[in-house]
Amino acid sequence: LDHYWHMDRVAKASNAPVICNKTMVKKVDGKKLIIGPRDKGLAFTTEIKKLHTLSVDETIKFDEMSITGIKTTHGSLTFKLGPFSKTFHPGSKERVGWGAIGFEIKLNGKTLANLGDTLLHKKEWKKIKNPNVLVIPIGGRTIPSTMNEKEALEAVRIMKPKLVIPCHYNCPALFSKNYN
């Protein structure tokens, strides 16, 4: 899961499984519920039929494919409107950053690492060696909730991927096309 606003709708329409961090799921009245994608706070309200969970460094397998959880951390989010601002910090009772996890996906001798939206984890990412593809956030220059370009380059030097796909940059904020 990464910015999973419509995850439940996509899973239902496509009959696809959902893979997420174990912290995103809670058993309520015998049902496995995920944090409601469009609910506020930490409300476990949404049932997913095909749900698979994992933790950091845990691997799950589907036929010939394996998926391993990668340590990630979402940074604080600050929203500004004119002279006003509000900062949301990740924490044990906060929705920001809850369930953050990356995925190392291996299939047919190829590896894709998707870091989602995260701060830099030099030590933990040393074990990810030469992925064929690395999806990495670079948008932290303006909003430090994720890595900036310099930190992303450091992560690239650590993992040495063959191909890099940058993400989480120039995301529109209040209709600004080039926010970061």
From TrEMBL:
InterPro entries documented for this protein:
RibonucZ/Hydroxyglut_hydro, UPF0173_UPF0282_UlaG_hydrolase
Looking up Pfam families in the UniProt record yields: Lactamase_B_3
| The protein's name in its UniProt record | Metallo-beta-lactamase domain-containing protein
Upper classification of the organism: unclassified sequences, metagenomes, ecological metagenomes
